[in-house]
Design goal:
By secondary structure, the protein is an alpha+beta fold. The protein contains seven helices and eight strands. Among the domains are: 75 residues, no CATH class; 43 residues, no CATH class. The strands form four sheets. A two-stranded antiparallel sheet has the order 1-2. The longest helix is centred in the middle third of the chain and has 59 residues.
Length: 277
């Protein structure tokens, strides 16, 4: 007799889940060991033939559980769910299928049971059911696509608004920082917004404002000196000034030339400046 040793639970689960013992027999033929007949006096879990094998009670329970699970899944797969509504006190009923899969199952099965009574589905009814189901599914897909596009558009607007708000906030923060640096008046709300936007930028702006204030104090002293000098200059300019002059008398000299008329021709003797005689 051949048996398997050191078989793991996973391997046992696999072999017991098979519909036949073919896989297990192949494994026994390949990896099994032969047990001498004198060592197999106790009731063995395995048969003495090579073509058949007995399994333990645990293995049998696992095999049965797997079969029941497969049977349940098959039943679930073939089950047709629908709602039944009676029309008033009449013997007429409205059948409402939950989804397209239920319609397909009913068409494939060819009948449904209502109040314990079988209702066969003709080919024409099957066509109508499939056509109606497709029409409903197309409408649902259209609505789903429409709603999807609406959400996408809303998300796009949200992203655009968020980006615009972020840009506007950054612009305000930079403007606030510039105003602080130049010592201009800034509201507490603007300072808070700048601090929340960027603490480092806020600290730099405050440091620059302190330097600006120190520079202004220095400039104020220089401006005071300049103003004092300007005031003195204006005072000097305001003093009365005498622009009168003492003129020199105009010279009365004239250009004179002395000539001699001795001889046949006159002759210039002297040219000089002199007074009128």
């Amino acid at each position: 007799m051949r048996i398997l040793r050191n078989l793991t639970k996973q391997e046992l689960d696999y072999y017991t889940s098979q519909p036949t013992a073919k896989k297990l027999n192949e494994r026994i033929k390949r990896d099994g060991i032969t047990v001498p007949a004198q060592n197999a006096e106790t009731p063995a879990k395995y048969s003495t033939t090579e073509d058949e094998v007995d399994i333990s009670a645990t293995g049998y329970e696992l095999q049965q559980a797997n079969k029941e699970k497969a049977s349940h899944e098959k039943t679930e797969k073939s089950r047709i769910d629908f709602s039944v509504f009676r029309q008033g006190d009449s013997n007429k009923f409205v059948i409402s299928f939950g989804n397209a899969a239920m319609v397909s199952r009913a068409v494939k099965q060819g009948y449904i049971e209502v109040e314990g009574q079988r209702i066969d589905l003709s080919d024409e009814v099957k066509k109508q059911l499939l056509a109606t189901s497709k029409q409903i599914q197309d409408k649902k897909k259209g609505v789903s696509l429409h709603n999807f596009l609406l959400h996408e558009a809303a998300n796009a607007r949200q992203s655009s608004d968020a980006m615009k708000e972020a840009n506007d906030k950054m612009s305000r923060a930079m403007q606030t920082a510039s105003r602080i640096m130049h010592g201009r008046k800034v509201s507490p709300a603007d300072e808070k917004e700048l601090m929340e936007f960027n603490k480092d930028l806020y600290a730099m702006a405050k440091s620059a404002a302190a330097l600006e204030q120190h520079r202004r104090k220095r400039d104020d002293k220089e401006d005071e000196k300049i103003s004092a000098d300007n005031e003195a200059a204006r005072a000097r300019e305001a003093e009365p000034k005498d622009y009168s002059v003492e003129e020199m008398p105009m010279p009365t000299d004239e250009t004179q030339m002395t000539v001699s008329l001795d001889g046949e021709m006159g002759q210039v003797i002297d040219v000089s400046a002199g007074k009128d005689v």
